[in-house]
Amino acid sequence: MKKLFQKRTVIIFCAVFFLAAVSIPVAFAQNSQPANSSQEIQFVQKLSSVLQNGTIEQALSLFESIPENLKNDTELLCLKGSLLLSSGKTEQAEKIASSLFEKEPKNIEVLNLNFMAAKQKGDKVNKAKFIKQILAIEPYNAEANIELADEQSLKKNWRNARDYYKKALFGDRTNEEALLGYGKMCYYMEKDDDAKDAFNRLYKLNPNNPQVNSYLGKYEAENTQYKKAIEYIKAAIKIDPSNTDYWFDLGTWSRMTGDYSGAESAWKQAVALEPEYFLGYAYLAGLYDEQGRREEALSYYRLTVEKNPQYYYAYESLGILAWGAGSWEESQKAFEQALKKNPDSISYKLMITACLFKQKKNLELRTFTESLMKKLTNRQSLDYKIVRMYHDRGGDSEVALNISKETNRTKKGRYLFYLALYYELTGKDSLAQKYYNEVTAMQSPMFFEYRLAQWASGIK
């Protein structure tokens, strides 16, 4: 939709060019046919006024009263065809374009009209044919090169797209679409100096272009100049408040400055604009979680996976918060989904085990732990011994001894948590608290179980 709007804008700009081209024959007519030339001048002036201040339909209606001497004027017919395309009347525009092509097959504006008509109709063969003919006459024709660049961009062929945008700029140094496209391709290719140069040139031409404000904001953010980045993105939002990406960026950069309220407002606006898109819910969930607003975080993680069940990164957090809320079945299901993404995670396997324990699903618990032990071929590993401890409800002394010998700090903290949890589940509260305290004393939150140990120790 946004691309169509840009193309329609281009068509209206073409109108100004066509009117300028028409002014010369009209001026000659003024000397030879005063009566007719007066009508022609009045028509052109009125059309120019409507194009600047009226609607496309109003401009098209004027052609019903076009003076006889101008009815076959190529430039005006091209203008009419462009306006018809802009109003969605593709078949009528195509008839005009075909008729003009029969008479003037080398006229660049006629070729442009045919190319735009073919594009709007979805006729790829004719579109390619007319682009080829345009470029044979004008190798640096802006519109034709931009179209080829757009095609390459959709295929993510950034280098080819960049080169076509560059050719368009040779033909028209101030073409906004070409400058924006060239800058974006350079941005994707990490040619930052070239990208910044293009964006700054475009900003000087049109500081009200929302996309250029957005990209200049991204560069400021990459340099940790978040306040300046926020200024740019707010300018983009003022011009295009319905663009969800801008609200996401505003939220991210606001959060980086410590403005959590601003981040929350921005991401809520993103959710309001695209309520079926999962990412806004995920961002809000993370924000609430970071602030210790656990109930809200849990609610938004639920919404995240509801909107996108394949977003596995949310399942671990959902499992953690559901566990903290005492929602054992929900926690189990969340960790089961997380395990699908990371099937080797002993943490997820043991959390599922603990959830089954909490629900008193003893048969299911034994079946699950038996399947885990079969897959753990190293019977001397701590992973195997901890799973067996939960299965047999014994062997904890050996596990404790093995943990004391563990040299990896993260692994040791994780194993201590599952030993503490085992004691909690089997009613040995004093031992459970002893080992939970050992975990929290590590002050090394490099594993999610550290957080669960804090909760178990009463640290919120």
From TrEMBL:
**Keyword line:** Repeat, Signal, TPR repeat
Task: Name the domain of life this protein comes from.
Answer: Bacteria
Provide the residue intervals of the TPR repeats.
176-209, 210-243, 244-277, 278-311, 312-345
Q: Which SUPFAM superfamilies match?
A: TPR-like
Q: Which Pfam families does its entry note? A: TPR_16
PROSITE patterns from the UniProt entry: TPR
Which first-to-last residue range defines the signal peptide? 1-29
Q: What is this protein called?
A: Tetratricopeptide repeat-containing protein
Q: Which organism is it from?
A: Treponema berlinense
